[in-house]
Amino acid sequence: MVEARPSSTGDPALRQARTLALIAVLGVLGPGAAGAGRGAPPRAVTDLAGPGAPVARAFSEPALQARFASLSPGLKAAADGVRGQDWMGLTPGWERLDLASPPRLDLGAPDAAAQAEEARLINALRPISRTPLADMPAFRLDGETDDARRALTCLTQAVYYEAAREPALGQAAVAQVVLNRVRHPGYPKTVCGVVYQGSARSTGCQFTFTCDGSLSRSPDPGLWASAAAVARRALSGHVVREVGSATHYHADYVAPYWAPTLVKLAQIGAHIFYRWTGPSGERGAFSGRYAGGEANLTPAILGGVDPRTQLGLETLAPPPPRTVTLALAGETRTYTVSELDAAGGPALPAPGQLSPARRRPTAEEIRRINAAIAAVERGDAAPALTPTPTPAPAPGAAVQP
């Protein structure tokens, strides 16, 4: 955008009129015509003669004022008639070069309010689908298990950071989108997995608050309590039928590139909701089962992308495998240490790999082991390391040696 900066002296329209009139007079009537109306000698020929500086001086502000003052009344009246008209299509301030206050380009940030209004106009042009909304089944995950508590926290975060100041129905609709994704085969099979999918990427996280720094701000206690109530109700089987099988939404003040590729279902508050096109957006496609393991946010989940709107974006590569080199009886071999697979479970044993055969020690066990090592180094009597009791296996369960 070009900023209109008029010159520091005089009326821009008047200066433009004077310049046009002077050019017309000098170009059409001849150099001496500037003073013809008053019988003045053609001294302008001498002033304008010669290259460079004399020509520049002839078009300076004082020179233009003197030339305009020397025009006949008729020519002044003609010049006054073009005042305010931009014959050359120039932005005010660009009619002539003024090195004292040169015009400049405005390279600042675009007007956010204008962008938001433009996005709302674009979104309003896309009609809401007239097909009936899918009647989605209830999702239930309540109780006092670790998975239930973690799922409640993640869903509360989604409702709070995405829709804390939206109407109650709009907050519930955001929770419904999360649970719809849990059931859809294109997304992780846990609540926290859906919420934090792509959060390790600098761009492309599925829920913006997981990668834009919002989590570093302390939530408002009252709004957090309201969001928690919405999340708890959703995990207890409440279904928001107003958004059907929606798996996507965005605020109405933005117009994302992917919106035209989905089916627009509804607008609730400031959020517009969408579903996949074709059979992938119908109820029958939501056949995924909740997998549990809310704490298992694997690299594949944290670096994942939306298969519907982000195809072609490179998924974050998993960390490089760890290797161990062992020398035994004069023979040296290098093994790859088996890690968790993309689903969060232990990888299947394979030739040339070392698979962990024991569970990882707890934080308390590590503390006691370190305390025993420190005591030995000081020469103290090492405390006895009492093994952590192993719970008895359930009846009929296989016992691993």
- CATH class identity of the largest domain: Mainly Alpha
What class would the helix/strand composition place it in? Answer: mainly alpha
| SSE series | HHHHHHHHHHEEEHEEEH
Largest sheet: 3 strands, antiparallel
Q: State Rg.
A: 37 Å
General form: extended
What CATH calls the topology of the largest domain is Arc Repressor Mutant, subunit A
Q: How would you explain this protein's 3D organization?
A:
By secondary structure, the chain is mainly alpha-helical. It folds into three domains: 1-108, no CATH class; 114-302, Arc Repressor Mutant, subunit A; 323-354, no CATH class. It is 34% helix and 7% strand. The chain is built from twelve helices and six strands. The chain has helices spanning 12-29, 44-48, 53-58, 61-69, 73-81, 112-125, 146-163, 168-183, 191-195, 221-235, 299-302, 363-378; strands at residues 248-251, 263-268, 271-275, 323-328, 331-337, 353-354. A three-stranded antiparallel β-sheet has the order 1-3-2, with helices on one face. Strands 4-5-6 form a three-stranded mixed β-sheet, with no helix packed on it. The longest helix is centred in the N-terminal third of the chain and has 18 residues, at 12-29.
